[in-house]
């Protein structure tokens, strides 16, 4: 059975963020927590290279 959620990968200098539309329950929380990574006005809107790996670890993963 395939994954029904669209999956996009955003690569930083030494890290990667995977976003699955329709599954991410914490997107708004992460936008507020790390606006330098998650900026809806920018393209791409997820830019993991804008922060350190330690800071990126603050992203709240979806179940």
Notes on the structure:
A two-stranded antiparallel ribbon has the order 1-2. The longest helix has 7 residues. The chain is globular, with a radius of gyration of 12 Å. Strand 1 and strand 2 form a beta hairpin. It contains two helices and two strands; from the N terminus they run ββαα. By secondary structure, the chain is α+β, with helices and mostly antiparallel strands.
The fraction of residues in strands falls at 15-25%
Count of DSSP-assigned helices: 2
**Global structural class:** alpha+beta
Share of residues in helices = 10-25%
**Molecular shape:** globular
Order of strands in the sheet with most strands: 1-2
Order of helices and strands: EEHH
Instruction: Give the termini distance in whole angstroms.
Output: 18 Å
Largest sheet: 2 strands, antiparallel
- Provide the residue-averaged pLDDT: 85
**Low-confidence stretches at least 5 residues in length (pLDDT < 50)?**
none
How many strand units? 2
**Radius of gyration, Cα only, in angstroms?**
12 Å
Spell out the key features of this protein.
63 residues; two-stranded antiparallel ribbon; 2 helices; globular
Can I get a quick summary?
The chain has 63 residues and is of the alpha+beta class.
Topology, element by element:
Blueprint: E1 7-11, E2 16-20, H1 27-33, H2 53-56
Antiparallel strand pairs: 1-2
